[in-house]
Amino acid sequence: MKLAILDPGHFHAALLQKTMVADVEPDVHVYAPAGPDLDDYVRKIHGYNARAEQPTHWRLHVHAGPDYLDRFAAERRGDIAVIAGNNARKTEYIERAVGAGYHTLADKPMAIDAAGFAGLERAFATAHDRGVLLYDIMTERFEITSLLQKALAHVPSVFGTLEAGTPDAPAVVKESVHHFAKLVSGAPVVRPAWFFDTAQQGEGLVDITTHLVDLVQWACFPEIALDGRRDVAVLRARRWPTVVAPADFERVTGVAAIPPFLRKDVADDGRLHVYANGEIDYALRGVHAKVRVLWNFEAPPGGGDTHCSAMRGTRANLAIRQGAAQGWQPVLYVEPAAGTNADALAPALAAAMASLQAAYPGVDAVRAGDAWEVLVPPAYHVGHEAHFGQVAAVFLRCVAAGALPAWEVPGMLAKYWTTTRALALARG
Domains in the chain and their CATH numbers? Predict the structure, then answer.
């Protein structure tokens, strides 16, 4: 397989090439406008090639210029298009890629508003007609505690059945905390200035929440083809800004002055208001869920991006926590539901862990008061960056097989229906 990289404005494009990918040629064609986004991508790839430990050997062929998009579509120098960058044109890029006959692996979000969702529906229809696959990069499905939470949620002797919940007491809650200043591949990330413009990056309600809504669908209704218009009811949604000081903006972008396209978001005190935070209350096939995304400028010492999650069952609750008490690593807990005796739950949990050890050797559960902590060997905590290679491997297997699982395309459409509807509701 050959890769064609289209306008790589986000570091996720480079992370897909952090290691060599089996069955992918080292020659990669890159189509993009000349500028700092392209330069940063090229620097990252050259850094992977030059590192002392497990260096990569990608050979980049860069096609830069104002006609990059037309050349990308006409020349078709790859089998798989990778799209990770400015989201203002993401859906347009996806439509051009599948229309040109590329299998397409796109970073989230594939749509940031209702117009983008309509374009995404067209893109999936075109992909079907052209016989190519379109897939988004859902890295969080490969995080070990999410995998174990999903597995235990479908062990009736431990979890029981999933509660329906209510709007004020949802059965599923997922929260993700991210940071503008962070390390990527061991170096401080440089954010493009447009990353702070929600007209280009998308608001928090349609960006990181893509992962959270995906996890709700994947964990609660695995391998079921969902229909957003029929199965999803968005009940409430709200949004609020992260306030970024000019000095912090310069620190993470390298841009000394806030550019004109961001002045619309600058308050009287000179600080930038970025609508990166959001919360959605919705029902999925009658199950009430809440997803929340928060963006801070920088993590506390020793911390980083975090993911917390809770699923309420009739026999037990499954909670992922990732705070200072957990050493900033995600930890899964099994907590007896109200009315369930902790001692009575122990044999079922022991049997479930024994079964899980076939797939995840070394995983176990230890008593922690009236609950259990699931112990995960460090080897399973491979980190967010490694998950990109895992997604790529899954997608390549699907390309080789000629099809995605039947539930994936309906699930992607249901997911983006949820996020774009929530944004429309929050804007009121």
Answer: 3-136 (3.40.50.720), 141-384 (3.30.360.10)
